[in-house]
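We both want to read discrete structure tokens more fluently, so let's practise on a single case. Would you write everything just below, so we can both look at the same thing?
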Amino acid sequence: MQHDENIPPWYKQFWPWFLISILVFAVVIGLGLLYVSMLNPDSMVRDNYYKEGRAINMHMGRDHRASELDLSAGFTVDELTGDISLQLDGELEQLPPALLLELMSPTHAERDRTVMLQQISGNHYTGQLERGIQGRHYIDLSDPAQPGEDGWRLTGEITLVMGQQHQLTAK
């Protein structure tokens, strides 16, 4: 067996270090991505899917009830104060003294808002947002005094713009 004296040892050659550097680079990038993902975890908008799934029939009954009552609502959010002004129309026998308005972000749970609207006169209601809100949201308007299948709800998906009139109608 012959040894060539012109071949340097492996640690003095280019290719082993090139292959090792690819592996080290992959490990460093992987650890960096792991660190970033630990700092910014995904938020669960709705964390109990089983419970949500069981409630679908109840929600559909509430949607049908709103349709039967021919309910609709128009609302605006004041740009400066965050006041919500809502007008509820439909064939309700008695108007509720309060309404529950839920503004749900499809992507970030921390952007969800719940506002209790108080009746100020006739079919006019008002409430206040603690902070400004804009962008795409799912809307859920209901009577908190009638939860479950006895109640009704109006739902919709809107791009919320402060100061602009928004409409919810029964489907």
